[in-house]
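[Automated response] Your request has been received and processed.

Submitted sequence:
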Amino acid sequence: LYDDMEASLRRFSQYFGWSKENTSNADECRTAVVQAGDHRHDHPPIQKYGKEWNALVEVNQFDLELYEYARILYRYQGEQIFGETASPV
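Generated structure:
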């Protein structure tokens, strides 16, 4: 999940066995990517539950439901596959 990028990248590394590679370079690269972020979608913030917010929710209702389900699965995978006690997401 983008909301938890560092942990998500760590999970990819563990799941696909990337941690067996040169870990110091991989850790440095992962940290650099997380710190740099992705500014392609930067936009001014909108007020939660305001006019714009409600318009976006209406148009993207099913996307939001799918995203909430993905967050549930992310937490479950963190516990069941990666042994995480609680995910911040």
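Summary generated for your ticket: The helical segments are 5-15, 23-36, 51-59, 61-80. The chain has a mean pLDDT of 86.
If you did not submit this request, please reply to this message.
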